[in-house]
Give the backbone structure.
Amino acid sequence: MKIGQLATATDTPVETIRYYERAGLLPAAPRTAGNYRDYDAAHVQRLSFIRHCRALDMALEEIRTLLRFQDAPGGDCAGVNALLDAHIGHVAQRIRELRALERQLRALRGQCREAQAAADCGILKSLAADAPPVPARPRHVHGVH
């Protein structure tokens, strides 16, 4: 199948497919005589796996690790369990952070109970006030989540 057909079959934008190929997650498809990529069922299965992992908010490095396990079906899956346990921990931390963010936003929203002139808006005044710098939260995989 051509890349557009793979995109339709997996509900994946063409550029995302190309990105996964460049990133080494999806093997490059052989080319036809007309220089079109020629994908098969294995590409559909692997791309679907990648998309499912991304839907679970897994980072590309996590997916790469899982794919290595999948590509070695005779190996031990203890590493898969460890990876998922770590990912669950990261998700739990993010939930705590999001709850704290929600509390901050609700408190901010409480600064302006009803519509008034923007010059008198408590929210805008609070946002403009000098606030301590927000520390960057550590990320479990650089550049994601």
Notes: The chain has two domains: 3-71, 79-127.
